[in-house]
Amino acid sequence: MEARGLVKSFVTERSLFGRVQRRFTAVHDVDFDLERGETLALVGESGAGKSTTGRLVLRLIEPDAGAVLFEGRDVLLLDKHDLRRARQHMQMIFQDPHSSLDPRIPIAEAVMEPLKVHFDLDHRERFRKMATLLDRVGLGSNVFDRYPSELSGGQLQRIAIARALTMEPKLIVCDEPVAALDVSVRAQVLNLMHELQQERDIAYLFITHDLALVEVLADRVAVMKDGRIVETGTPAQLYRSPTEEYTRALVDAIPVPQPRSVRAAP
Amino acid sequence: MTELLEVAGLTVAFPGDRGWNPVVQDVSFEVSAGGTLGIVGESGSGKTVTALSLLGLTTSMGAKIMSGSVVLDGQELVGMSERRLNRIRGNAAGVIFQQPIRSLDPAFTVGDQIAEVVRRHRGASRREAWDRAVEMLDRVHIPEPARRAKAYPHQLSGGMCQRVMISIALACEPQLLIADEPTTALDVTVQSRILSLLRELQDELGIAIIFVSHDLGVIADVCQTVAVMYAGEIVERGTIEDIFAHPTHPYTEGLLGAIPNPGQGRLLRSIPGNVPHPGHMPTGCHFHPRCPYAVEGRCDTEHPQLDPVGTQRARCVRAAELSLTGVVAPC
Prior knowledge:
The complex is a heterodimer of chains A (266) and B (331).
Chain A: E1 2-14, E2 20-33, E3 39-43, H1 50-57, E4 65-70, E5 73-74, H2 80-87, E6 90-93, H3 97-100, H4 107-118, H5 123-136, H6 153-165, E7 171-175, H7 183-200, E8 203-208, H8 214-217, E9 220-225, E10 228-233, H9 235-240, H10 245-252, H11 260-264
Parallel strand pairs in A: 3-8, 3-9, 6-7, 7-8
Antiparallel strand pairs in A: 1-2, 1-4, 4-5, 9-10
Chain B: E1 3-16, E2 19-32, E3 36-40, H1 47-53, E4 64-72, E5 75-76, H2 82-88, E6 93-96, H3 100-103, H4 110-122, H5 126-139, H6 145-148, H7 158-170, E7 176-180, H8 188-205, E8 208-213, H9 216-222, E9 225-230, E10 233-239, H10 240-245, H11 250-257, E11 307-309, E12 312-314
Parallel strand pairs in B: 3-8, 3-9, 6-7, 7-8
Antiparallel strand pairs in B: 1-2, 1-4, 4-5, 9-10, 10-12, 11-12
Helix pairs in contact in B: 4-5, 4-7, 5-7
């Protein structure tokens, strides 16, 4: 996947007659590449334009300018029908698993739904596929008939992952997938995502505000500030020798898992 | 040293299908004046219920304190009337919550909300209370405090709102601040600024802090002592240095392993499984189904007590024989 010169601005103020008075540019001339099976982390503070970039890549919102090439084809030029087919291979996982699943639909249904829409399978095959996927993310048949409200955040995020996998995606845009989870559960989910990537050669665009998380998954990191990518590198490079002051601030903000007294000692 | 807060045998229950389900069980700890205690655990471990029950804030959620005592500065709070508790809340003890924007009233300016606390508890005049509000906003490093006092919560960022919450909590110079996951909803950079603000206020004002979080890395930044909670009980207690260098409960080891520590390589250690639901507690040690060191015939039958192990206390029958891994200090 390649993103070229992506630009997106939002109207923040209109005159009485609807004429645009003020615009806010959320994403400003953003370029990056993502290889098959690779993870690129987009890191920055709230408002840096990371999530907007993620949505532009999947064309959930339309950019003002730029191109998104997915396997050589410009996603932005596809018509409705082709876009729908292309989207099978491009999935998204959101921050809040409670709001990305329908509270009235039991888990097994929710995971089978995309199979119904995109594939011509009979019920038994769908069921088998669903059970295999849930098993792969570490959930058993005891969750099939449960509703999202009965499950924990970590379990729901596994379900969201299983649901994304039904389409056998080549790219998953993950928007802060573990920000709402406990530290211990966070580790489970990140490790699972890493294993799935190894198995299935999925590329991740991993959006996060927390630089501490990128080392587990990311091959490369792009640091965003005010809608622009200000620095790129491997996680190790950025931790050790960030060139931008902004990146350094992000690195310094990672809580050091050590008591203060121990850290102060030489 | 006399303790500012003494909690003994606190048990809090919520109504379940069949009677009351204890969510917090037999929790005891002390906080000295100016001291800091971190309460750490996963969602569902009972850490927030513990912290909020200290000031009777869980009764409105349907909870009931079944037994135990909470003594703040010589006063027993369990069984105290709402009226008298209200005089303590925001006055002798302040609270800040996880969602700063939701905790503020959208219909009033932040200055009004700080001033209200001062007027209520200190009987200050409008003028004095407003001046105090501006002073507090300045104290928590909000730029242009006189102008910001006239802002409404939606006009401020999450980090700013948390600073406002802190100024409300501290406006009446309490001796104790209860902080329930105050930085979980914030960006990492904002989190680090809020943590350093809390440390600064603690140094300068000498307030005691109870800091609740699921992240031991964050707790290490603010607290001197830690209580690790699992399934409603404290499973380990000790100083932050001891807990990090040599945990004595397998659950603490698991929590430490899950903290991302840049430069340590790719995979994180994780704790398999989930926190058990109240009412469906496993037999024996509550943690044994998830514990890599559990021994059949012992851990699944014996319910361990919080016994001393070296300078710490741990609720594990094998605590003395295990040698667990902490976080190695960087050289």
